[in-house]
């Protein structure tokens, strides 16, 4: 089937006239005469075999056909403009959309992003954070960095780093902790996973079969660590993701005991073709993880 040539000038004239509901104001915007705009719209109506506007004494009103066409044109022109804006200095700026669990994004990725930007200046990274619950398809993500065992349906997963969980707290509380059993006198901050503290106590040689009663549950390690920083209790979190706080001594790790409950993974839909921007980010991220 031979497609008819798109009447771009006429479509542009219609879109501008529809926004302003005026041929005169559309003509000013397009830097042409009012007669030229009116002629272009009439030409488009003749080609389509429909009436797009009702001509009124004091302006224009869209017909049903015009209201159907307008949003399609607006989206198309916006996408064209956005694409053209991404050409810069003879290069095409690619957009890369990444979702990451907040702990990894803030504690590990953000301090390293300047290196990625230096090495890949024509990739525009769009980063969103989550609490490890993410729908890659629904959110339109190229990649999602998440924590777990690496098995998600329809997902390709590449392991990045392990991040064992250990006890973290403010120095004032750390001074009260001489043995793991002393933790039972503290408020324990934890994630929604009830097995983490019992597993840590088991690794420390204590038999705790349920989450201790004095605990606060968080859906985000970032929120949990903020509570720990304010002295609300003792957190079980990955020290690797809070290295800056440890270096500044605002947080301390009173025991070296750690437990591994999963790893951080770079994931994408198996059905999602890998773009050049995705490949560049993946290679950079894997190299940075190896240097960790």
In short:
The protein has 292 residues and is α/β, with parallel strands linked by helices.
Tell me about this structure.
The chain is of the alpha/beta class. The chain folds into three domains: 8-85, Arc Repressor Mutant, subunit A (Orthogonal Bundle), CATH 1.10.10; 91-162 and 263-290, D-Maltodextrin-Binding Protein, domain 2, CATH 3.40.190.10; 166-247, D-Maltodextrin-Binding Protein, domain 2. It is 39% helix and 21% strand. It has eleven helices and 13 strands. The protein has helices at 8-20, 23-30, 34-48, 64-85, 102-109, 113-119, 171-174, 196-203, 221-229, 243-247, 276-290; strands at residues 53-56, 59-62, 87-88, 91-92, 94-101, 123-130, 143-148, 155-162, 166-168, 188-190, 215-217, 234-237, 263-269. The strands form four sheets. A five-stranded mixed sheet has the order 6-5-7-13-8. Strands 9-12-10-11 form a four-stranded mixed sheet, sandwiched between helices. A two-stranded antiparallel ribbon has the order 1-2. Helix 1 (8-20) packs across helix 4. The two termini are 56 Å apart. 26% of the residues are buried. The model has no long low-confidence stretch (mean pLDDT 90).
